[in-house]
Structures are given as C-alpha cells and as structure tokens.
Predict the 3D structure of the following.
Amino acid sequence: MGIKEQIDRLLLAEHYDPFQVLGVHFSDNDKDSAVIRCFQPHARSVSLLIDGKTIPMERVRSEGIFEATIDRGTVTDENLDPYTYQYKITYNDGVEKTINDPYRFMPILSEEDRFLFNFGTNYELYDHIGAHPGMYSQIRGTIFRVWAPSATRVSVLGNFNGWDGRVHPMRSLGSSGIWELFLPGIGEDEIYKFEIRTTRGDILEKSDPFQFFGEHRPKTASVVRYLDHYQWHDRDWQQSKKEANPYENAMTIYELHPGSWQRDPSNPERFLTFRELADRLIPYVKKLGFTHIELMPVMEHPLDESWGYQITGPFSMTSRYGVPEDFMHFVDSCHLEGLGVILDWVPAHFPKDSHSLARFDGTALFEHEDPRKGAHPEWGTFIYNYGRKEVSNFLIANALFWIDKYHIDGLRVDAVASMLYLDYSRKEGEWLPNQHGGRENLEAIEFIKHLNSVVYERHPGTLMIAEESTSFYGVSKPADQGGLGFGFKWNMGWMNDILAYFEKDCFYRRFHHNSLTFSIMYAFSENFILPLSHDEVVHGKRSLIDKMPGDLWQKFANLRLLYLTMWMHPGKKLLFMGGEFGQWREWNCKQSLDFHLLHENDHHKAMLHFFHELNTLYKSNASLWELDFSPDGFQWMDLEDRENSIISYARFAKNRDDHLVCLLNFTPQTFYNYKIGLPSGSNYEQVFCSDQSRFGGSNAADRTIYRTIDEPYAQAQFHANVTVPPLAGIVLKPC
C-alpha cells in the first residue's frame, strides 16, 4: 500500500497502525532526507522544532496532514529512539501550543508482558494496561493501553484532542490484541475514553476497563490517576497479618454499605467521603468490638440501586466516596486501629452498559457470544468468559490489585453459586451442558481454583470468602486437595434455618426444634462464616427486629437471643449495619441508618450496649473461636428438650479446661431449678446473660455461681440446677 492510500485510511480513521504514516519516515529513494508527518485537523499551521530550528510544515492534505522534509543528518543514529523534535501548533481559534509528537516513540510494552497476558498469567496486569502517567525517555506523559483484539482501529479521546477519534489513533501490538499510545504532556486528572472501530465499521466509545478512577455518575469518562502518592503507615499490621492464623482467631465482621451507613447531616443527598467515614465509622465499629469491616462493592458502578454489584470499573474506586487516596486513608486508619478490611468482589457478572465491558470491541470479548452461557436472565447482566485466558487474567489481576494497591485484607466473592452451575436460575433449554454433559461450569471452577491459589501464594494472610449457597464439595478446602481453595464459606443453610425459626411464634417453636440443632451436623464440613447480611433486610424481608414475634419487649429479647445464639455457634460471624441497635426500617441504600433511635428509645441504646458486651465476651474466650472448624470444640449438653425449646452445649478451646457452657431458652417462660448438663465437676460462674436489666431484660436469673452435681444428665457427665430466664441465654464458665 502506497503512502497516499495509507494517508487516506488514516483520514478515514481506519488505519490499524498510524505509525506507518505519522512521525519520522526515511525515503528509500532519497537517502539524504527524511519526512516528518503529523495529522492536526484542528490546526491553522504547524511548525517543526528540531535541532534548534523552526521549520514551517506544509499542509499536504486539506484535512490536516502536515509534512516537513529535513536533512537526514538532523536525525542521527544517536537519537533515533526517540527522535528529538516538537511541533509548534497554531489552532484555528488562535491558541498556540508546543507539543511532543506521540508518533516518534517506539513500542513500550515488552513482548514478555504481552505473552504472559495472552497466556493468562500476567498477574500485575494493572501495572501495564490502562492509563499510566509517568516519564518515558525523559518526557512526561501518559501511556495508554487497551485490549481490543477484534478492533480495526482504536483511538484515545479526551479534551486534549477535542474528543476527535481521528487525532490520536493507537498502535496495534500485533497478535496480543493490545493497543498502545504514549501521549506526552497528558497527566493526572485528564479525562479520556477509547474510541473503537469494529470490523462492521461501527464506532464505539468505551471507558477504560483498567481505569483507576472515573467521572462521577452519570458521566462515564475515565480519569488518568496515579496510585502511588499515598504514604502507608500499616507496616506492623501487614507483618502481623502474615503471622496470624485467621482460622484460630476471633472474627466478627461488620458489613456495611458506605453510601448509607451515614450521610452528610446537612445535605442527606451527599455521600460521606472515605476520609469522613474514617473519622466516624472506625471509632464506632471499634467500640462495638468487631474485628473486621466488610464493605459492599466500592468499585465504580452507574446505578446506586445496584448497591455496587453491577460494576463498570473493576479497577476503579467509585467517585461517590472521594478519590483513591481517601480510600487508602480509610484502610490505613482501620489497620492502625486493629481492624481488618474486607471488600465484596464481583467476578460473577457485569452490566450491559454500552460504555463498559459489554461487546467491548464489537465482539463478545469479556463475555460469551451465546446468551445461554454468557448472560444472566435473573440479573440482566453478562457472564465473564472464564475459559478465555485473557479474561481470567483480567479478573485475577483485579483481585490482586485491591490487595496490592489498597492493602485490602480479604475479598468476599459474590454469587459463587451462579458461577459454579451452568443452569443457575435457568429453565430447561436455557443453558448448555459442559463437555461431559453435566451442569457444572468447569471453566469457572478452574478459574476459581487458579484465583485462590495465586492469591494465597502471593498474599498468604488474605481472607478469601465465598458467598456460596449450595452443597458444592470443598468450597473452603485447598485447591490441591480437590477443593475450590477459598479460606471461608458463608453458611447460608444456618442463616435460612435460624431466621425461619426465630420468625415463628414461640409456642410453635417446639415443632421446629431441628432447625436449632441440624446445623451442627455439617458445621465442621467447611470453614463457615455465619452471615446475617444485607440480603436479609431488604425487598420486603423486613429488618431483623421486625422479623421477631411478640410484643416490643419480646422482640428485643428475641433479637438479643438470636445474636447470642449466633455468637455461641461454631463459625466466624458477620452482621449487617443497623442490626446492632435494632433498626426497625428495612435497609434503604438512599438513606442513612436511623441512628436517631439511639436518642429516642432506651431499647435501642441497650441493644448497642448488649452488642459491645457480647463481642467482649467473644473476643476474651478462646473457646468461642480457637476450634471453630473442629468437632473437638463443640459438645452437646442437651439437644433433646424440644418441649421447652431449650438447647445447651459446651464450646472448648484447645485446652479443654478452657470452655464455656451455653443454655438458650427460645420461649418467654422462666424455668426454675432447670437441670443443665456440664462437662466437668468444677463449679460454674455465670459470665453472661442476655436477660440482664442493663440490656433491657427481666433480670430473672437469680445467681451467678452454680454448684456442680456429680450426676449425669442428658448428654453430659455432670449437671447443675439453674434459673433459666425468658427468651434468653446464659453462659457459664468453670470457676
């Protein structure tokens, strides 16, 4: 193809390699000269600045092609990479500007990085793809890269070129599918997009899949951002995390939506920034005694009502809550106060918004072409193509990104069940079986194992948590032992059973006693976290306090009993915000929590006090967490008293002398001289009771020290006689 034809293609914005036309070109016919060519469609005139000279460039095409022919000796072999020249441009509006030529630079991304990406193992991909401000060959600017293998042309768009896709077309890096362009003079806070021409000739405007920051909704442009400004102060935390064993330590997680925990009191429409949340939220959570904060997705998303689960910018902190450094400050502040930070992470699906990942280069690039594999009918979203190595690499690098750049301590992986099964939420005929004819998504399973293996290899102290609701084998078993490799799994079975039980009138609970006891049958089959999450207090399900039966006093007594039941049960704990003080209203992502209730009603204040003391009891007794995942840490004292709806059991630390005995009464009746089984002949002291008056209870339990009787009872070798308070639990410790 001759130069005229190539220029024609460039002017039509169809050229896949603009470097063949623009920049410095040597003539095969004239060995003594070189042509420097630029395309400036908005310029009145252009001059070439080289070797201390100003050379007017000739407009050779009316559309804005300018050329200058110079002595080849001016661009000697010593400075071929890059050629040291600039353009002085006078634009049509009279503005003058001097720029470096983007088309004088050689390719920057190494062949090794390209190969590893296509192979699916470039785990620091976020350091290479996207927009990266910095210096190249002593010139400041930003390197733009994007993966669009089926595009016929890709350009960078921004205010710096009038959003004209003809001005800054990118260079194709061959079979890698990556496009690259270094734009001198472009720095932080510039907004940009990619313009993509598809094989059908359609023109798409896309946000950067690797953007580190984006415009505030409803705008959708990406923002050039550098993420290494922040000075971290959590070295001690990071070191202690490497040495800690999360399975044998206390873990109570406070789950929250950062946009509705609190809002600006003077302007309820305004979200608090993460710096403001650090000042208000961290002292609150620490005082309550939680060990971790779990944030619903903080990645960029267009729709508030999606709560962050329909993500358009997986590498981008949402602009709703400030800038990236604000979030870094929040995480850093949590660590300095001894709180871990867990992020909800969403690799199961992505939305169909046209500016984002959907049909990114005109093809099903990140998703499957066939909607029977590539779309979620329930959520109206696309499913990632886990079998495509570049997509798998994209997701694994994204998980590592939040751990690396933001020092996140754990990822709670959303909707794992939807990833594992090809027929998830689909009717017959709406899904395709795997190569063996089964319903398991083999590609997703392999991706999950790969993900967890890489995360634990690179960041051993990370908490990888699966929200998985089926009986899939080995979710929290190591991948090399046939499991999925997660560290923990949400116990959705326990959650469904216990909430269904507590919603029942107390009189009928005797007929559903198995709901209290069945969970122990499988409690040690996985590393479980017991969740009472946001999903249980929305969409007509009512708040936790409003689920409880009875009058006002009984509702609060039931809620305290629910929490004590949960905290005494084997497994780590998670509670969604608002539950700690008994919010009446369902959660609404558009409103702050009803903290005013703490000043209007003693019941709510007492509930908050109860939570503080419950977490204090929990953290100070190794028997409640040291053997969470071993049957050695649990023993029934009496599981058969269904007539009275009472259960009792013991929890043990590794040292069996260190144990607690818990008795739970799920009726409003007080029982006197009730026999409670005990595992040892020691006398026992009552160390906690959910019926104490300071919690809003009746204070029916009349003693704190109990003499043990050397006589078997139920499943125990010893017993004592106790007063059992109504809708309450007592916790005993040998003394």
The first helix runs from residue 3 to 11. The domain at 3-104 is CATH 2.60.40.10 (Immunoglobulin-like). Residues 298 and 317 are 6 Å apart (CA to CA). The two ends are 92 Å apart (CA to CA).
